[in-house]
Every structure is written in C-alpha cells, then in structure tokens.
Write a structure and sequence with these properties.
This protein is an alpha+beta fold. The protein has three domains: 1-69; 87-186; 214-406, Alpha carbonic anhydrase (Carbonic Anhydrase II), CATH 3.10.200. It contains ten helices and 17 strands. Helix 2 (87-97) runs antiparallel to helix 3 and helix 3 (104-118) runs parallel beside helix 5 (142-154). The longest helix is centred in the N-terminal third of the chain and has 82 residues, at 2-83. The model is unreliable at 179-189 (pLDDT under 50).
Length: 407
Amino acid sequence: MKKYLRIALEVLLALLLAGAIAFGYLNFTGKKHIANDMEEVSAELDETKDTLDKIKEQLDDAQAKLEDLEPSAKQFEIVKQAFANGVVLQDMEAVYKAQKSLSAERLVGLGTVRQLTKGFEDPSAVEAFQKSLEIAELGARMQAVCSAQSALISAGKKVKLMAECLVKPNEKKAQEDDEKSKESAAKKVHWTYEGEAGPEHWGENYPTCANGKKQSPLNITGDMGKTKDSITPEYKETALKIINNGHTIQVNIEPGTSVLTINKEPYDLLQFHFHRPGEEQFNGKAPAMVVHFVHKSKAGKLAVLGVTLNEGKENPLIKTLWANLPAKEGEESAPEKMIINPATILPSDLSFYTYEGSLTTPPCTEGVNFYILKTSSDISKGQLNKFPFKVNARPVQELNGRKILTN
C-alpha cells in the first residue's frame, strides 16, 4: 500500500512540476509578445509625431505666407473699391468704342477693369479675355496670353495654363531683376512642328486640334461647287512691324490701315505670316511656301487670304522683310521710316478656292473662312533658303464632309 501511495505522490509532484514549467513558459512568452507589441506601438507613435511635426512646419510656413500676402490683399481691396463706382470703366469703354478693333493688350486691360468693377465672373470681362487670347495666339504676345489665361482661371473657366506662364515664386524675383532670364523664358516653345510637341500631339493641350471636324489646312482637289462670295483686298502702306515668334516670320498690321471686304463686309487685316512648305496642297502637292493674311471683322469673325509662293523671280516685298528680320526671337522689330505695302505680294488674278476651316496653329480655333488664291506669286531660291524655318507647316486635315468651293 505504501508503495502505491509513494508512486501516486511522485506522479502528482511530476504533474505539478510540469504545470509550473508550462505556466512559467506561457507567462514568459506572453510578456515577450506584449513587449514586441509595445515596441511596435512606440515606433508608430514616433512616426506619427514626425508627421505631426512636418504638418506643423507646413502650417507655420502657410501662416507666414498668408501674413506676407495680407498687405497685398489690403492694397487690392483698396484698388477694387476705387473702381467700384464704374467711372473708370465708362471712360475706358467710351475711348475704346471709337476704335475699330483693340489689341490683345488693350482687351486684357479692359477685361481687368471690368473684373475690378463688375466682379471676376463678369461675362463681358470673360469675353474680352477670350478675344485677347485669340489675337495674342496669332500675334505671339506671350505676356497678353498669360494675363488672359490667368484672368479666365480666376473667373472659374477651365483653362490650361501654358508652361511659359507658370512662374515659381522663387523664380519671379530673379526674372524681374535679370533681363537675361526674361529673354530665356521668351525663347521657350510650348508647341512645335516636330517631335513630342509636334502636330500629332497638339491635341493633348488643345483638344480642338484633335477633335475638331473643320480643321485646316486641306488638300484642294476633286469636284468643286460654285461660291457666290466676293473678295476685295484694300491693303495700304503701313509701317513695318516684324517679329520672329518662334514659329514663323510675322508682320503685324496697325488695325484699320488695311481691309479685306468679303461680300460687302469689311475685315481688318491683323497680320500676315509665312509657312514652309505651303500648308494647302493642290492635288496632293504643296507649293514652296504660302503667305496667310489674317483678318477679323467687327463681329469677331476670322478670314484668311492665302497666297501661295513658288520658286521664280525675286520678290520685292520679301526682299524688304528678309532684310529686316529681327535679331532675336520674340522681339518685334519696327525699323524707323520703313514702309511696306502688303498688296505688292498679291497676284493680279484674285480667283480663289474657299472653305470653312480653322487656325492652322494651336488652339486650332474653328469658324475661320479660307480664301486660297489660285494664282501664285514668285519667291527666289535665295529668298526661300533665307527663311529661318525649314519646316513650319501643319499636315493637311480630313475634309469631314465639307465642300471646297470656287468662284
């Protein structure tokens, strides 16, 4: 009996020992697991603290910037109050009303005064900025483009700001103080005729270039109907204002000095520029060059008169223009006492083809009536080679059911 009792006690002691060991092990591993969890929580707290510190720094920076802007905001409110009575706007509109057309810069100024007087979403202000963009694109007036785009954005319009108009705060001071920096910025190109910014990519920033159904230029071919349109160019002598805008050579015309009359409706000549080779094709063949005369009516309608140039004799007007090419890209040159007459490049026969199209450069605005003369003018081989752009022509576009007419 004692023997069995002893065995039972030994078994009981063994079980108690095993239980104690197991309890101790579980207690140890539990503490270790809790310690690991505590370490992870501590690490997460450290990360959260770092994030909060960074957010605090950003908030402090934002607060500092707001404090810096506060004087400018007060000054702006003072200026806005000064325009609130509308007297300045009335005087400005009265002066501009007497003019047949306004430059891009004046339209921007008028739109700005309207915003200060009537509010940032004033429809007439928005219209003025949109018109200035249209003209500025044609005239390559980058400052007017940037001002108009920024104003339209402030009015709540969806406008993609050009890269040239994006000026970082730390660059602004440098641009104001450093003239070389300004010249460098003016040379930047936001679209080109080849590569990643070429015509096949224009639609990425200018949707109408890709999605428009009435785009220019066209291949003039096939059966054509008859048009009742009549055109009468009345171009007169004017002071030479010539610019290399990075895309072409362009001659700007003082508004009101030269007119194209279409069906008794006058269109002011705004400017004329050159493309090499000619953008319009004739039965699939392009001329050596083309001159596009860009006009605008009082109602805002655009019309382009195209004069093709083929290799031949020296052209007197082009001789004058090429002799006065600007030394720098982006700067308008106005040689003293230099007078030209755009009419001298026109052929005597003004028979034409006509169709409804678009600007052939971004933003590819549609609703432009084209009148392409059938007879070409001459340009010498030397003059052709002196043109500073080897290729600056948009490829021909789809007809999309349009009719090309002839007179």
